[in-house]
């Protein structure tokens, strides 16, 4: 359990560092400690759940991530109002006990750019923990960005949404089935409605079942 808590703390620290630099206010040290402790406990439980799901898959002999070509089948071929830019990109990585695959597709509508990315972290739970550490842990807002947890109303799916206010850049990032990381991001946005709408059009239910 100590090893699990260390992993949870490390994943949370990495995620927090990645989100830093957006505010100049001096934080309350006591509040920060309390919040971090609560967040670590939540993340620790997510790690337990993810490990149980992995062991369930391993018992069926499913210990490797999908090949990136297979993962690309979950990318949307068309997005209403957008045209696809080039072919989907992707790769599969197998290094010892670490296995993951990633793919993405870019789209365009005038000067507006959209990207959909999928990552299969089967066999790489630590990487999955780092990618999803901030999901379901509340919200943060300042003059430059809004970041908060979001619920698309789908079983096995949790996530957070981010709006870079000055850049008008919106992102929704999702953890699916304690295995997949899904990201939809777009430029020229005043809110996160578009990226969440596109995320709902993906076959997330099927991914959560794998």
TrEMBL record:
Protein species of origin: Solirubrum puertoriconensis
Keyword terms of this UniProt record: Signal
Name this polypeptide is given: Secreted protein
Signal peptide: 1-25
């Amino acid at each position: 359990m100590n090893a699990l808590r260390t992993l949870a703390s490390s994943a949370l620290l990495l995620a927090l560092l990645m989100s830093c630099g957006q505010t100049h206010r001096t934080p309350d040290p006591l509040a920060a400690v309390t919040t971090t402790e609560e967040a670590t406990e939540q993340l620790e439980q997510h790690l337990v759940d993810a490990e149980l799901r992995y062991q369930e898959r391993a018992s069926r002999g499913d210990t490797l991530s999908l090949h990136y070509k297979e993962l690309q089948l979950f990318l949307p071929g068309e997005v209403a109002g957008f045209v696809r830019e080039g072919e989907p990109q992707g790769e599969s990585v197998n290094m010892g006990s670490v296995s993951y695959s990633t793919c993405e597709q870019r789209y365009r509508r005038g000067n507006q750019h959209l990207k959909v990315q999928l990552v299969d972290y089967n066999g790489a739970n630590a990487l999955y923990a780092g990618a999803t550490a901030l999901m379901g842990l509340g919200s943060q807002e300042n003059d430059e960005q809004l970041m908060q947890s979001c619920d698309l109303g789908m079983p096995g799916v949790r996530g957070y949404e981010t709006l870079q206010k000055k850049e008008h850049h919106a992102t929704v990032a999702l953890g699916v089935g304690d295995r997949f990381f899904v990201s939809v991001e777009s430029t020229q946005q005043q809110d996160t409605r578009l990226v969440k709408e596109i995320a709902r059009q993906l076959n997330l239910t099927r991914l959560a079942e794998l």
